[in-house]
Write a structure and sequence with these properties.
The chain is 66% helix and 0% strand. By secondary structure, the protein is mainly alpha-helical. The radius of gyration is 17 Å and the shape is globular. Residues 103-130 form a coiled coil.
Length: 168
Amino acid sequence: MSEESKKIEFTKLIEENQGIVHKVCRIYTDDAMAHNDLFQEIVLQLWKSYDSFKGDSKFSTWMYRVGINTAITLYRKKSRKPRIDRLDDHHFHIQSEERDENVEFQIKMLKKAINQLNDIERALVLLYLEELPYKEIAQTMGITEVNARVKMNRIKKKLKTMLNPYRP
């Protein structure tokens, strides 16, 4: 496959699945600038590792894995300022979908609770909220399906306690 056809194929896949990257960005960022920076960094990492995608899993599963790993790696640092490589050199023309402020407002309280979780728990919640089957969650996170179920049940209890602290 030529470099140009690879770029075209990659751009098409990113445009079709960019919602995944936006969802990862929403979970790990608090403002539009950080969201855009993380979006660009995730797309860059996806491009850099595109040759490693073998098709053993769905593209979306692989995309979640790369996106979550990129976000966790960048945002584990207390500075919260990731080093950003510019995509301009690659000349991709990917149109970003607009952020829906109404949807973001509706999930504000849940996001506040989710932000109190550790990085791995946040990633599990994101995948769970995407209604991915536990098999795919496990594959994305690199854990067993049973482990994914157990961790998710613990996270649900933790969130329930955070959102309803006075309820027994």
